[in-house]
Amino acid sequence: MADQKMIRLKIRRQDGPDKAARWEEFEVPYRAKMNIISCLMDIQKNPVNAQGERTSPVVWECNCLEEVCGACTMNINGQSRQACSALVDQLEQPIVLEPLTKFPLVRDLMVDRQIMFDNLKKVRAWIPIDGTYNLGPGPRMAEVKRQWAYELSKCMTCGCCMEACPQVNSRSKFIGPAAISQVRLFNTHPTGEMNKHERLEALLDDGGITDCGNAQNCVRACPKGIPLTTGIADLNRETNKYALDRWLRK
Amino acid sequence: MSTRQSPYHFLIRRVHSLLGLLPIGVFLAFHMVLNLSARAGAETYNKVIETMRNFPGIFVIELIVIFIPIAFHAIYGSWVVYTGQSNVLRYRYARNWFYIIQRISGIYTVIFVVTHVYLLRFGEATFAALQHFVSNPAGLIFYALGVVLAIFHFANGLWAFAITWGLTIGPRSQQIWSYVCGGIFIVLSVVGLSDLTAFLK
């Protein structure tokens, strides 16, 4: 037990939205192939900090544990990413864990990303298929189109792009790159395309596509490699065409 | 879910983008090139200024082509700067640096242009007046920075313009266009700074 390797963690903790933030350090016994989630689970089992004091277990969120749900997104050594795919062997110690800064804090590493869902509703990121009778099968989607659209569908609303975007902050209404990219996904779908105008319309609003500042951090921050900046440029073209056409038809 | 939209947001943002090139960017390039006449000496320069000032309807042209577009671009641009929050210390990418430099250069250009217009358009616009101003090292730095940052703001703005108008969509076209804009920045900066050296005697 004497030569047991330890992992050092420095965690930014906060008991609630209105409570003061503090740093707390932990040491967790090393095991091969550990990720940040397993470190946090160890702290949960034995909530004692590096000074040997008993403390409250660190609160975090996780679900899929395979980087497809986005729930465990947090800032790890200053970089927003998923805790499940952040492997201890690849991280510099002490590993610094902080909650995402662009969302209301719930507790410790847990934030409320409701705004991302609200933004998806704003841009109508779904395909309306309900009818009073069976509408039958929709139009076929070309295979080449399906292949690149699939890349856009990998978005898990994790919030990394929002965290990296200088235009997403408390002074701005910008809906962020994720929701804009979803407009591109649903406007590409042959059935979704039928309601294309509704989504483009939503992008014209305050906080919509024009609030992008072209810092292009989003595309680098995205863990799924979604071409977010290409999507924004493409929808710039589409919204320009749409807005001009709408105006000329008035 | 359909709440009331702000009807002019998109239009205002697009007008703001368009004005940066037409007429402001074109005017900037024209202004830099025209001022090369200062290199031919005080007499030629003063004659060019005199001709411009006596141009029929110059006041109306200046108001519509220069003053109103710049005022709108500057005021709305300041609001855009306010709504941003730089994170360049955490995300040290070149484009993120350009994002913040674009905003700093914009604010600096507003201060510079106000001073510049106050001194030379409403004041005495002669070769000697500017010569006197840049004879002071602080005045020279203020001017040289004003010229370079205004040109940077234009060149980098032109890069973003191509995205805003949906011209450069993929990363490769954006990259190539950034080289073109870089070239424009260098050429115009050389022209602008050589305008300025004419007054250093």
What distance lies between the first and last C-alpha atoms of chain B, to the nearest angstrom? 67 Å
In the CATH hierarchy, what is the architecture of chain B at level 2? Up-down Bundle
User: Which percent band covers the strand fraction of chain A?
Assistant: 5-15%
- Stated plainly, the CATH topology of chain B is called 3 helical TM bundles of succinate and fumarate reductases
- CATH fold name of the largest domain in chain A, please? Fumarate Reductase Iron-sulfur Protein, Chain B, domain 2
Along the chain, the helix and strand elements of chain B come as HHHHHHH
Taken together, the total number of domains of chain B comes to 1
Name the poorly predicted regions of chain B.
Answer: none
Q: How would you describe the overall organization of this protein?
A:
The complex is a heterodimer of chains A (250) and B (201). A five-stranded mixed β-sheet of chain A has the order 2-1-5-3-4. A two-stranded antiparallel ribbon of chain A has the order 6-7. Chain A has two domains: 6-111, Beta-grasp domain (Ubiquitin-like (UB roll), Roll); 114-248, Fumarate Reductase Iron-sulfur Protein, Chain B, domain 2. The longest helix of chain A is centred in the last third of the chain and has 21 residues, at 228-248. The radius of gyration of chain A is 21 Å and the shape is elongated. Chain A has helices at 36-45, 114-122, 143-153, 160-164, 177-188, 196-203, 217-221, 228-248; strands spanning 6-14, 21-29, 73-76, 79-82, 95-98, 105-107, 110-111. Chain A has 250 residues and is of the alpha+beta class. In chain A, 32% of the residues lie in helices and 14% in strands. In chain A, α3 runs antiparallel to α5, α5 (177-188) runs antiparallel to α6 (196-203) and α5 (177-188) crosses α8 (228-248). Chain A has eight helices and seven strands, in the order ββαβββββααααααα. Chain B is mainly alpha-helical. Chain B has a single domain (9-197), classed as Fumarate reductase/succinate dehydrogenase, transmembrane subunit (3 helical TM bundles of succinate and fumarate reductases, Up-down Bundle), CATH 1.20.1300. Chain B is 77% helix and 0% strand. Chain B has seven helices and no strands. Chain B is globular. Chain B starts with 8 loop residues before the first helix and ends with a helix. Classes of the chains: A alpha+beta (250), B mainly alpha (201). Chain A binds chain B through residues 78, 121-122, 124, 164, 166-167, 169, 171-172, 174, 201, 204-206, 208, 210-211, 213-217, 220-221, 227, 229-230, 232-234, 236-241, 243, and chain B through 1, 5-6, 9-11, 13-14, 80, 82-87, 90-91, 93, 95-96, 98-100, 159-160, 163-171, 174.
